[in-house]
Amino acid sequence: MTDPILSTRDLTVRFGGHVAVDAVTCDFHAGELTAIVGPNGAGKTTYFNLISGQIPATGGSVSLRGRDIAGMSVSQRTRAGIGRAFQLTNLFPNLSVLENLRLVVQSKSGKGFNLFSMASRHSELTEAAEAVLARVRLLEQAGQTVSELSHGDQRKLEVALLIALDPAVYMFDEPTAGMSVDEAPVVLDLIAELKAQSDRTILLVEHKMDVIARLADRIIVLHNGALAADGDPATVMASDVVQEAYMGKELTDV
Ligand SMILES: Nc1ncnc2c1ncn2[C@@H]1O[C@H](COP(=O)(O)OP(=O)(O)OP(=O)(O)O)[C@@H](O)[C@H]1O
Ligand SMILES: [Mg+2]
Predict the structure, then answer these.
(1) Domain of 20: which CATH number?
(2) Ligand 1 near 188 CB (within 6 A)
């Protein structure tokens, strides 16, 4: 097997006496979509926070392509290739959807400032941003400010920003939560496209079993912060830990 893109080794965080993530050791490979499941409070979001750098670990390590990234800030990790769905609080609320997205495309393209090419660059960036908006079906809302968007459209914009960034590791934490039945498939189709077309490493926290069954190459189960199961979907779904603890309970909740 190839070297993992992302690894956690004994990754742990304690909040007071509570161990929210408990010595989780796991490798994630290119081209693999891993669903992360477990009941409410199992530590899924906290595990993401440790990987993306939102909170410091109390033990263990996170490495990207074999390099320990513990010392890196959130933005350094983002630049290194760890793509957490954006918090919309990081955006410019009074700029339009298109302008916000163009800023991400621009930072990604990373070319030097050149006055003579600015005009053509501007239209190139606009086209690239519009193409991403079209993929998430937000083109009609391109001129709206972020604060004017509906909840579902804000979530779609988060996904659009991530796609524009195109990180090596995509991290989605319940990407369709709170979306309408019309909106959720747009986002899930995009995740399916990402998986099909690229060698990206995708981590997906998801409660909905039908979504997991459709998308996951592998499932890991967190329980009380610890890794309780890890394997291909059929094996993990049939495992005692999932059957006893979760089936018919949280995991089938919608
Ligand atoms: N900053 C924090 N300070 C103290 N406790 C925290 C903090 N963040 C999370 N926790 C606790 O850590 C545990 C894991 O929470 P986490 O949000 O990671 O669970 P989750 O698996 O994402 O749950 P859900 O399915 O509800 O989203 C919970 O007991 C939670 O209360
Ligand atoms: Mg969570």
Answers:
(1) 3.40.50.300
(2) no
Residue 246 is part of which domain span?
1-81+169-183+200-254
Instruction: Judge whether residue 248 has pLDDT over 80.
Output: no
Q: Would you say the CB of residue 82 lies under 6 angstroms from ligand 1?
A: no
Same domain (yes/no): 1, 74? yes
Q: What is the pLDDT of residue 104?
A: 85
> Does the beta carbon of 152 lie inside 6 Å of ligand 1?
no
Task: Using the predicted structure, report yes or no on whether residue 48 has a pLDDT greater than 60.
Answer: yes
Which ligand 1 atom minimizes the distance to the CA of 225?
Answer: 14
Nearest CA to ligand 1 atom 8: 46
Residues 175, 68 within the same domain: yes
Residue 4: CB atoms within 10 Å: 18
For residue 46 and ligand 1, the question of a CB distance below 6 A is answered with: yes
In terms of domains, do 129 and 245 share one?
no
- In terms of domains, do 70 and 137 share one? no
Claim to verify: residue 100 and residue 24 sit in the same structural domain = no
CA 236 / ligand 1 centre spacing (Å): 23
Asked if residue 254 has pLDDT above 50, the reply is no
Residues 56, 99 within the same domain:
no
Does residue 36 have its Cβ closer than 6 Å to ligand 1?
A: no
